[in-house]
Amino acid sequence: MNSTAKGSSASGYAIWSALIALYIVWGSTYLAIRFVVESMPPFLAAGFRFLIAGAVLYAFSRLRREKKPVRVEWRSAAIVGLFLIVGGNGAVMWAEQRVASGIASLMIASVPLWIALLDTIRPGGRRPDRWVILSVIAGFIGIIILVGPSQMVGSEDQVDLVGIAVLLFAAYSWAIGSLYNRGAQLPDSPLLATGMQMLVGSLGLIILGTVVGEWSRVNPAEFTTNSLLGFGFLVIFGSWVGFASYIWLLRVAPTTLVSTYAYVNPLVAIMLGSLLAGEALTSRVLLAALFILGSVVVITMSQSVGSKAAPVEETQLAGGND
């Protein structure tokens, strides 16, 4: 691995240490979400997670004398935050009440598939080559393997269709937000832009939680230790440590190497869900993972080669769901 690809003197050891940390941190967020929703309402929990994380990132950026964002930048942050944080992360939080964390990670790994599809129909979009087309088909075959057969035969390990539908909506929403983010007018500072998106997204989640009546479910005395630890992990590691590592890696390592987190994280999530939460690790799940993650590898590499822009996964803040 050539660490000088981006004009950096960072050592290979430092880069790989940060990358492995990113794999573990963002791969762990799916299990943390599962623990959080054990005793906390999903939308309000996500809302306050991003309110805390976003406020700190925004304050830190402003203390570094980053330029104060203007109205159009707040508007762009609001749109991106709506799709990524409310539609993306909020839907994941809700769905993990019904679907295992490892399966949730596989559904969110389909984001590049949706992006590849949407990118072909949007104005000025990129025409996919045959490998991308085949990869999209393979990815959706993986989803069918994960969902279809068990539903048709009524097997004991069938997945919740409502939860899967919400996760696919989350991935679709993330894809829309990612594509919009490419040309959105946002602050030059990634930390400031992320803090703004988190703040606006957190307000959307809190409003959504209020509308669906989640405040009646808020009882701190009933919050489990797992939920509290999961919430703290999402704020500190998922939103702060993970994103800071990611931003540093983007500046010192080749984009194609950094983007590997998109298909390593689900593997980490599946293993942790099996080891720490007793989630079933069946041959069907592993076969589906092979199809979905294999397609993501091809699409991610295809989009990275010859492109000046970072991969679209850069906009997937805090991992699972990020």
Could you explain the architecture of this structure?
The chain is mainly alpha-helical. It has one domain (8-308). Helices cover 72% and strands 0% of the residues. The longest helix is centred in the C-terminal third of the chain and has 28 residues, at 225-252.
Give a summary of the structure in a few sentences.
The chain is mostly helical and 322 residues long. Helices cover 72% and strands 0% of the residues. It has one domain (8-308).
Envelope shape:
globular
Strand percentage lies at under 5%
Q: Average pLDDT value?
A: 85
Query: What is the H-and-E element order?
Result: HHHHHHHHHHHH
Could you give the topology of this structure?
Layout: H1 12-36, H2 42-63, H3 71-95, H4 101-108, H5 111-121, H6 130-153, H7 161-183, H8 190-211, H9 225-252, H10 255-258, H11 261-277, H12 283-304
Task: Identify the notable features of this structure and list them briefly.
322 residues, mainly alpha, 72% helix, 0% strand, globular, disordered N terminus
